[in-house]
Amino acid sequence: FSPGLLVVAGSFAAFRLLNRGLERLVPPPPSARRNRWKWRNIWTSLAHSALPDTHSLSPRRFYLHPEMSNDLVGTHPPGAHSLVAVSVGYFIEDFVDMLCNQKLHQSWELLFHHSVVIICFGIAVLLHQYVGFALVALLVEINSIFLHLRQILLMANLVHTPCYRLNSLVNLGTYVVFRMATLAWMSRWLFLNRHNVPPAAYAVGTAGMAIMTPMNIILFYRLLRSDFLK
Length: 230
Known about the structure:
transmembrane helix; TLCD; TLC-dom; 10 helices; mainly alpha; membrane; TLCD2 protein
């Protein structure tokens, strides 16, 4: 039994309660009332992405602990393990929320994405290894802030506004820097350190990168086409 599982369970319960109360905290506009669960779901996702620990601690950890750049397997500073466990709890909650409220053909991509993240982060939580690797992956959440804001603006029918246009530009820029570049760096690190990673963990990591990279390239093209090429 890993104490990290308690953090995962607590995180799941906290995000579940937040999801239930968000409709009162942030009432949906008339354009979003037909899809109330989605409105709550996006705001819950934004809350996870905007958590100070989720994005600000990852770069700071590497600045304060430069040895992590060379050892993403066994080296992790205090608090990093709990941070990854909190994210596992969130992704499980989001998986359950989509599974209960959305048809499978509409959500299978995100469900698949969450399954990969839960497995990879779950290994880090259970084994207390690869936590540094998971911290690098959490840099993606910096872009997720603007990705979720885009969905909120769309649901609020605020597409033709300067706010949406500005968010689209920032979203695309952070997508390249914090999502695509991060995945490329992780793939490179995994390849260069393939002799130092056990075969099973290397297989999981390689499969995860092989799945996530094409998915993110496709999403980037969709964003580019929707917000800039139309």
